[in-house]
């Protein structure tokens, strides 16, 4: 009876219900991702192996490779998911800003709060991000470009609103602001800085980087 009801519901909505095989595959991927996230946080990217991840997920290495090409593919999916959520949080924060400087400060603060409870994973991301093999794919992931575009749009708003001089929204200044944002994670990861301290430092960085283009 339940099977018939599922078919009827599918026919009524025009959307086919996922098969048992598809559901099982989704559950397997979810288990692997959860186990991988935990081990990457605990052991770092290099320390966590596919064998360890499979064991933590309660399945064979073959099951892992049936869903992910390799360890870098697995890590990239975790980070892409996080960066998409981070970009969304930053976008919402920017909308609450009052002027270009305040908007950028709120954007950066949203990022620091996002990773406050998962700094070990952020440390693994930085390790992978600067590796010659796996780094380019992570650094050039679409969510990273979304963050750069967000910073650029705040600068452009500053130009249009008369706060900043023409040309302030240059790709170089955008990249320098993004690099300043990233650089502060070093203090959080290795020196234990709280988000408030990171925000204070980023506030000074933003002021310095905007000083030469601010209209008096």
Your description of this structure?
It is a single chain. With 216 residues, the chain is mainly α. It folds into 2 domains: 14-68, Orthogonal Bundle (Arc Repressor Mutant, subunit A), CATH 1.10.10; 70-216, Tetracycline Repressor, domain 2 (Orthogonal Bundle). Helix content is 76%, strand content 0%. Helix 7 (119-129) crosses helix 11 (185-191) and helix 9 crosses helix 10 (171-183). The longest helix is centred in the first third of the chain and has 28 residues, at 20-47. It is elongated and about 65 Å long. The mean pLDDT is 90.
Key features of this structure:
single chain, 216 residues, mainly alpha, Arc Repressor Mutant, subunit A, Tetracycline Repressor, domain 2, 2 domains
Domain tally: 2
Going by CATH, the homologous superfamily of the largest domain would be Tetracycline Repressor, domain 2
Helix vs. strand class: mainly alpha
Give the SSE string.
Answer: HHHHHHHHHHHH
Give the mean pLDDT: 90
Q: How many whole angstroms does the radius of gyration measure?
A: 22 Å
Q: CATH first level of the largest domain: which class?
A: Mainly Alpha
Termini, distance in Å? Answer: 74 Å
**Total DSSP E strands:** 0
- What share of the residues lie within helices? over 70%
The major pleated sheet works out as:
none
Going by CATH, the architecture of the largest domain would be Orthogonal Bundle
CATH-derived topology of the largest domain: Tetracycline Repressor, domain 2
- Overall geometry comes to elongated
| Contiguous helical run count | 12
- Poorly predicted sequence stretches spanning 5 or more consecutive residues: none
